[in-house]
Design brief:
The chain folds into three domains: 157 residues, no CATH class; 86 residues, DNA polymerase, domain 1, CATH 1.10.150; 220 residues, hpI Integrase, Chain A, CATH 1.10.443. A three-stranded antiparallel beta sheet has the order 1-2-3, with helices on one face. It is mainly alpha-helical. It contains 20 helices and six strands. Helix 7 packs antiparallel against helix 8 and helix 8 packs across helix 9. It is elongated. It is 49% helix and 7% strand.
């Protein structure tokens, strides 16, 4: 097994001890995290990449020591460390660094770095990073930092937003109160508010409950270290840190705190991280559309009736998001007129995906309001007749059996059922395959047909990022219809239509 590669259960992990002299700088005794794979060959490849990345981390820490931010003591840690002697040596190094920064007219940068380093050393002494080597060294470094910060020597440091006093910090709000301010300003979905509250609860579990004015960069670093140690993916760590940054930004804007303690705390590198989702390959499509739902007309209780049949097909042939399709009303399926290349009037059936808050319809962003031509494959299966039946019955929605989850998301519960159906019934076990993967299929097959990217973005509701693309109003219907007419899924055979529509 390659160096630094370990295994917990079926999953491989990277585990490398941190050199003793670097532990006060890095803040932990070892680097350990999941490689997010159960395949040994892939784990070995990822382990080698992480070994190189950890070499860079160690090199950066040694450079920090050499610059005077910390002073290593080459004596064996088993021997007693004289705090005063260590502090004197650290103070001499800090003086040199201060003089160098002064010559470069960067004293303010030096003051900021000094404050951050002091927070880290205090966190080590408080035990918030776990066992990280000699506490005597940490105490000596803290004393040296305090001496420089207090103006020791001939050169005082500029004021750069000194942390509030304990009394002032105690009067600042708690993190949940900032969430209330954020929610009032942004009107986010309830599940987003819940997620942010979970982040705050996790942060307090690591650092103890304290008002925002008492939270330091060391607290944020300890939280990040906790998330990494728990095996969270870099994207997840970054998301949690972003929650905190947003709250601290509000506190800075409202003059609650002078500086954001999370501003310079970065998530782990996402280099080499596998993409979260991929498209269904031919065998996986056969597994889904070869299930009893399509071959025997079965309708599982949690599959919400005909939604179990139509939603995967709609996703494959429109590229639409799950909730966009689940909330469709009969009136959202209609014919529109356009002019063909010879200026002759033509009609096309389209799906209108639109936001209607009064009717409970939501979209992800403004570009998600769009029209999608209905593929002939769906028409051949009887989709228009299915919609007509819903219209004749006076149904508010095309899929009336969908039951919203506790956040009011109409496909929230259905999505959970589909995930179980995909794994347990269809046998598609790769976790990078989800319902959203149909959207990836639509993008891929559109490219395979060598079709226009701008038309694809207009159909799927993706923003190109170009301001020019926002000129001219709605995307013309003709190229969308012509592109959809050429769209095909290679090697895919349509299932039979529902029995009621044959």
């Amino acid at each position: 097994m390659p160096t630094y590669l370990t295994k917990r259960g079926a999953t491989y992990y990277f585990r490398r001890p941190v050199p003793e002299d670097l532990r006060p700088i890095i803040g932990k005794t070892e680097l350990t995290f999941s490689l997010r794979t159960k395949d040994r060959a892939e784990a070995g490849r990822r382990c080698r990449i992480e070994a190189v990345e950890s070499d860079k981390i160690f090199a950066a820490a040694r450079a920090k020591i050499a610059s005077g931010a910390a002073v290593p003591d080459k004596a064996d840690d088993a021997e007693p460390v004289d705090v005063q002697v260590y502090a004197s040596r650290a103070l001499a190094a800090l003086r040199k660094k201060r003089d160098r920064y002064a010559a470069e007219n960067r004293l303010e940068d030096f003051a900021i770095e000094l404050g951050e380093e002091l927070e880290v050393q205090q966190a080590i002494l408080d035990g918030r990073f776990g066992p990280v080597g000699s506490l005597a060294k940490a105490e000596g470094m803290r004393n040296a930092l305090r001496a420089i910060q207090s103006g020791e020597g001939a050169m005082a440091l500029p004021s750069v937003g000194v942390a509030p006093t304990v009394a002032a910090a105690a009067k600042t709000p708690m993190l949940p109160e900032l969430i209330d301010i954020w929610a009032a300003e942004r009107s986010p979905e309830a599940r987003s508010v819940d997620m942010w509250r979970r982040t705050c609860a996790m942060f307090y579990a690591v650092n103890g409950e304290k008002p925002v004015g008492a939270i330091t960069k060391a607290d944020v670093l300890a939280f990040r270290a906790h998330l990494i140690a728990k095996g969270n993916a870099p994207a997840t760590v970054d998301s949690r840190l972003n929650h905190l940054r947003s709250l601290f930004r509000i506190a800075v804007e409202q003059d609650i705190i002078p500086l954001d303690p999370a501003a310079t705390v970065k998530a782990p590198s996402m280099k080499g991280e596998a993409p979260p989702r991929r498209y269904y390959d031919a065998d996986e499509l056969k597994a889904v559309f070869g299930s009893a739902i399509y071959t025997k007309g079965e309708r599982p209780n949690r599959g919400a009736g005909e939604a179990a049949y139509w939603l995967p097909l709609l996703a494959l042939y429109t590229g639409a998001r799950l909730n966009e399709m689940g909330q469709l009303r009969p009136k959202d399926i209609l014919q529109e007129v356009y002019l063909d290349a010879d200026d002759k009037e033509q009609r096309a059936w389209v799906i209108r995906i639109t936001e209607d808050k009064q009717d409970g319809l939501t979209v992800k962003n403004p570009s998600s309001n769009r029209r999608v031509p209905i593929h002939q494959a769906l028409i051949d299966l009887g989709f228009l007749r299915f919609v007509d039946a819903a219209r004749d019955k006076g149904q508010a929605r095309i899929f009336p059996d969908l039951k919203p989850d506790r956040y009011g998301v109409i496909t929230g519960n259905w999505s959970k059922w589909y995930g179980l159906h995909l794994r347990q019934v269809c046998g598609v076990l790769d976790k990078k395959i989800t319902f959203h993967s149909f959207r990836h299929n639509f993008k891929r097959h559109w490219r395979e047909c060598d079709l226009n990217k701008a038309a694809n973005d207009a159909i799927t509701g993706h923003e190109s990022g170009s301001v020019a693309d926002k000129y001219g109003g709605d995307y013309p219907l003709r190229p969308l219809v012509e592109g959809m007419a050429r769209y095909r899924v290679p090697g895919f055979t349509l299932p039979p239509p529902p029995a009621s529509l044959r």
